[in-house]
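Troubleshooting log. The previous run stalled partway through. Resubmitting the same two chains, unchanged.
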Amino acid sequence: MLHDLQTCFMSGIYNKKNAGSAYDFIQPTDTQTAEQILSIYRGSIYGGLKKALAETYPVVKELVGEEFFNAMLSEYINAHPCQVQDLNNYGFELSNFIKNFKPAESVEYLADIASLEWHINVASNTELQINNLADLVNLTEDVQLKLIMCLPKGSALIYSDYSIDEIWNTHQQDDKAMFEIENNGFHYFVFNCDNNIKIDRLSLEQFYFLSQINKDQFFANVCEKTSEKHPNIDINNLFSDAIKNSWLVSFK
Amino acid sequence: MNVLSGHHNVNKRMTSPHHTTQKNTLSGVGVGFRAEHFKYIEKHKPNIPWFEVLIDNYMIDAGSSLYYLDMAAEHYPLTFHGVGMSLGTSTTEGNGKLSSDYLAKLKSLIKKYNPVYVSDHLCWTSVNGYHSHDLLPMPYTDEAIRLLISQIKQAQETLERRILIENVSSYVTFKDSAMQEWEFLKKVAEESDCDILLDINNIYVSAMNHGVDAMAYLKHIPIERVKEIHLAGYSDMGTHLLDTHGEAVHEPVWALYEKALQQFGNVATLIEWDNDIPEFKVLEVEASKADIIMQQAKNHAA
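Second attempt completed without errors. Output:
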């Protein structure tokens, strides 16, 4: 019985159009119907989830305004009821949701900004791992080729048609200067560098190189595939750039 | 006198012998440890006898909040207050199943920070893998009592310590309910042998919403189990009172608090403020008000 009550109540919260079974458990009062009583809880729950999402997606909120943001999130929560215990992990589907959310289609870069903010959230909440790259100098080149290089935990390689790093950076400032949004296609690496979140722009070759490393394969394979794809690139330069910029932090 | 320049009041509170809080004991009026105040607390080390930590926010691998938790633990006694145990969740078999992952994380934090109390709520927050992140009330039935007793015992065994359970605000009466909330709370606490965190604001909000007597509620609570009290602000929505934790404590709640202290003695009390969080000094003023009522209750008892 208790399980039935809880199942119907939760279902009625997240599925307003099909909340009838929840009303069967609720005692209406002289002033409020069962539907009104359930809506108090729906409002409180949706409010809490929206607050959490607003903390994860502050730039998306600022770009569309609070009213639009809240209306969009109501639709999002309807489509993606919360299924995670840690609120930091709620909302990863928002970028994809925005891509198909017609009222937002005039802000063409909004989904990419959401993707960027999600990865910033992930990188911020990921523990830093110990950097052991200094030990590489003790290893011969042959041994190095048999290693698996590691990107920072919680890092992400993302692509956008738009200069979303500039948009994001502008929204971190109180005085928001006007600038022209570029749409030539950009590759980014988002990562936690000593507790500072960095959004680095990458060349096509760097992006490919790091993408191969991210596949958890031997370094020899990474080098071979990168050379095949970009025959004119100097792998040694790519590797040293990756170390210098802290895109690589460890090996195994 | 301008109450907002209340350092004088606060200092007075700290020099009172009644509030010489040790790190492993709790007395006086604490406040919630919230991110909005981290830097202020680190810089000023305000004269607050203890802080309550919303422990779910610290079950993370990294982030600056862990640094500030270390800082707080170094200087103040702490209590851990959780919202994610979902003690009242029933499975399809009618049993409970606490999250072993959640309990393991909580146990690890308890081991590291040694809080004076660990508390959660007499409620459910999730079912069938869906999470509300809100405190949903139980129907007051024998089935729910049996479930909660089993769950609380399991939590206490796993955590190797007693926990406190808190009464939640409610806006709903379930048709299945067969007793008053205070009877439900008393039975659960006594039969699972846990302690009680009595939220005075929640008692007032629920009493007003359901037309029951808040004083009768207090009178039925076992005195020896009440280890902590919560005070917070509600919002009047016209049709009901909503427990928002976004305003100062209201006068009827202060009045009920006074009655509670007369009954339970000077139980450690927390000022909760979780939405539209004001400057820390506003919380200090609220804490000072609670302190004055505590002193009055003490004098009254003498």
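Takeaways: The longest helix of chain A spans residues 34-56. The two ends of chain A are 53 Å apart (CA to CA).
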